[in-house]
Amino acid sequence: MKIRLFVILGLLIIGMSGVQAQTDSIELHMTWYDDGNEGAVLRDLLDRFEADNPDIKVIVDTVPYATILEQLPLQVEAGEAPDIARVTSGERYRGFYLDLRPYLEDVEYWENSFPPAVLQWLRGSDEESQAIYGFPNQFTVTGPYINRSLFEEAGVEVPSDFSDEVTWEQWTDATAQVAETMDVYAIAIDRSGHRFAGPAFSQGAVLFDDDGSIVVDSPGFRRMAQLLIDWHTQNLTPTEVWLGESGTYTSAAQFFIDGELVMYMAGSWQIGNFANNIGDAFDWEAVPNPTGLGGSTGIPGGTVLVAFAQTEHPAEVARVMEYLASVPVYREFVERTLFIPGLRFYMELDYQTDLPAAQQSLQVFAAEALKLSDQAYTLQYGGQAFAINNPIRDRLSQAISGELTLDEAIVQIQSDLDAALAASAGS
């Protein structure tokens, strides 16, 4: 009886110790969105971190990208920021970031490994600031994909097979021929000012003047905007993407995955998504950005993982961030997600795919990264994208729906961005 009693007491003590250990662990919340399999890869990496750091538990709150765009800023401003978040608008949260520098074990690694332009983008206009708020966990380049199988079945030649300089108009004509034969959509670009900017710059748009002013109205901008409108009036593109319910963001990716779209203007971040959800169901591939009077350029970008000052556990947040930014973890993340690393140094990568389409697309986007224009870099990292991208998106949506003429939309875009910049300067 005594032996049994001791066993029971021992089990109770062990059980209580387990509860105590769980109670003592700190919970951190990370707001995250997925384009492909990166959330699953992140969870696997964090599970390993938690096994080695039982005092920290990271809860990943996966949300739609629309929530990152529309709800997270309100959440942060209301004092309800997560500890960590994956964001695409680094300038949007200035003043709310946690400076990781005092908590990092290897500050020099962060300073030497990540592009200064990205770190400064998070810091803002203070050139003297040495604060470290986060790191780019993926680098992206915008650019188009095609469904080669649809071209072949329709008997239409792929324009980029015969020329290195194919215009948006030529691609429109070719994809329209395929769409008519195969009863699918011809071409689409996601409802995003960032996504629209590359084609506009290629068409000759110049947003940033030498004197620092921003002027929307240019022949190149009008040329691309009118082409986008024409895609809708000619039923070449899914209307849900730009004219969804209540202006909600709807990616055209699913149309491409389902084989219902010939050409999709997106970017390198979709490679993992397509590798997982298309595989070899049909022949898909990235093609170079179309060319025009402004050359051939996409827009740099990607996501940054940032920490917020509202956290109650800054040291623990820094431990998570340092782990995810470390070379072996970072390498595994990009290899498994098929991302382009956002590092300053060369990293030999063994991308985890045997799929020729994914390998080919990675090579195309690596080449596109070398062609990015000065205007493209200024837009992404000049700190003014927040004032430019959303007005372009919203006002062009109104022009597509017929609520505004293109002339009126351009006037409104200029007015909106001027107001946003003035408000930012006065805050």
Average the pLDDT over all residues and give the rounded result.
Answer: 92
Architecture of the largest domain, according to CATH?
A: 3-Layer(aba) Sandwich
CATH topology label of the largest domain = D-Maltodextrin-Binding Protein, domain 2
**Count of individual helical segments:** 19
Under CATH at level 1, the class of the largest domain stands as Alpha Beta
Secondary structure: helix percent: 40-55%
The end-to-end span amounts to 74 Å
Question: How many strand segments?
Answer: 8
Please trace the helix and strand order, writing H or E for each element: HEHEHHEHHEHHEHHHHEHEEHHHHHH
Largest sheet: 8 strands, mixed
| Number of discrete domains | 2
Which short descriptors sum up this protein?
about 425 residues, alpha/beta, D-Maltodextrin-Binding Protein, domain 2, 2 domains, 8-stranded mixed sheet, globular
Write up this protein.
There is one protein chain. It is built from 19 helices and 8 strands. α2 links the parallel β1 and β2. The chain has 427 residues and is an alpha/beta fold. The longest helix has 23 residues, at 2-24. The chain folds into 2 domains: 26-139 and 301-337, Periplasmic binding protein-like II (D-Maltodextrin-Binding Protein, domain 2, 3-Layer(aba) Sandwich); 141-300 and 364-426, D-Maltodextrin-Binding Protein, domain 2 (3-Layer(aba) Sandwich), CATH 3.40.190.10. Strands 1, 2, 3, 4, 5, 6, 7 and 8 form an 8-stranded mixed β-sheet that branches. The relative contact order is 0.16. The model is unreliable at 5-9 and 16-22 (pLDDT under 50). The radius of gyration is 24 Å and the shape is globular.
